[in-house]
Give the backbone structure.
Amino acid sequence: MNRRIYSRLEMGHRALEFSRAHPVDSSGYATALKQLEEQLARSDQLAQEQARGTAEVRAAPSWPRSSISPESRSGAWPSGPPPAPWSMRHGSRKRCW
């Protein structure tokens, strides 16, 4: 999570704690407090999902070993030899500008 986003979420949590500790008798205040609680709950849920995703990516291997066929592991080319480099197919023309 980005540091800026994390600090804003922490600020929201502190504002919620302050609002609960110092209640005001107003219908608009109660509505705003309820919206803040819902938004902070949703942001916490998204932060947990992001943390799980990051942990999964870091735990995964850098490339899937099971997707490599036995032919390519042994060095044999399944469809013949590799194509020639571009310079060999089109002559080794060097351009001088």
About this structure: The CA atoms of residues 15 and 36 lie 9 Å apart. The radius of gyration is 29 Å. The mean pLDDT is 79. Helices lie at 3-21, 27-59, 70-74, 86-89.
